[in-house]
Sequence to fold (457 residues):
Amino acid sequence: MVRIVETSVRDGQQSLFATRMTTEEAVELCRLYDEAGFHAIEMWGGATFDACLRFLNEDPWERLREIKKVCKKTKLQMLFRGQNILGYRHYSDDVVDMFCKKSIENGIDIIRVFDALNDMRNLKQAVESTKKYGGECQIALSYTTSPVHTIDYYLSLAEEAKEMGADSLCIKDMAGVLLAKDAIQLVSTLKKRIDLPLELHSHCTAGVSEMTYEAAIKAGVDIVDTSLSPLSNGTAQPSTQALVMSLRGTEYDTGIDIHVLHRAEPVMTRIVNKYTENGLLGPKSLQTNPNILNYQVPGGMLSNMIKQLSDQGAMDRYEDVLVEIPKVRKDLGYPPLVTPMSQMVGTQAVLNALNGERYKMCTREVRDYLHGKYGKAPSVIDEEVRKKIIGDDEVITCRPADLLKPEFEGLKKKYQDIAKSDEDVLSLALFEQVAADFLKRKYQQEETETDSFEMYI
Ligand code: CO
Fold:
């Protein structure tokens, strides 16, 4: 039997229409999903938290509580980036701890964590705290291809993850570059050597992931991530219905109630139509993109780069930038191209190609990375490149968060006027200005509502 994690309410909508699904829509779907028999519903974390505050004027914590109310049978799952949580820098351990505590208290059952560099030290606090508060912790290994990303490399990472206390493992193929033949090797090795449930997460961006899922399932993977059609394929996950039907009656039968999927489908169609009509879901995200396999570049990173180039009127340099990407990656020690590394490598490739001199300019993030502030690179960083950018500066070799002082109490005090709960303080810790604006609006609005109600009485 293969179990399914339904991703449409988190990764599906994040991949296809910029995470703009409203809480009302998410709740409507999750209410139906709860009856289907999924292993879990991935519905929080990733970009959903930021998008709620920044674009939807919604409280992400309320979304979690509302979904929990309608999901009595199925586990709720979230994703976050280890010590970065959902933001773009490293947070202190006390913030990570409080975030795990409050996520679990408000309804999360499974926390999937990953680190862009696969530096397991960046996951240590998240794993410890998830377990401390009774959550199930899944460690995801960021999948990429490079001379150092071998089967042995992933096997030793998986061993480390198990020792740290992971309850399950996930192969996280964010770019959708895992090929069926490689999946067979990777999955069968991990299943043979590591006694933990193994999940596969991929994207259809390059058009190979359904073949990969089939191969991985036959090689023994326990759980796969899919997204309800029509919110599937393209830059999102393979279709839930397609997989359920294909495996039906075989030894891998998912046990999902297809009548429930039939009931959910028109709801999803209505939602997808809305985002197609308002232009957020464009045909480009649904096209198979062969460049991803050639250049190992995730879809989101390509569209960012195209935007950077066209903003500068330099679309004629597109090919030069594509060629530059693997070189920058090699110079930086082969980081997997996932947030925030994909942005760093992409921007650097654009700068190198447009400036006529490599590393003449670089971003603050790349400097920080070279100083060791994001953790340990998977392979050696080119010394000449490092010298050119940061000279003889000292490079951190400890776990970056060891250098951070506790932050939570300070933030709580700073925002005592607008934060009414620890959840509010966490929103402020992650997205300070955006959350401050949101909370001011939220509580002001509530006060006005109470006033008018009192007047009415
Ligand atoms: Co994903």
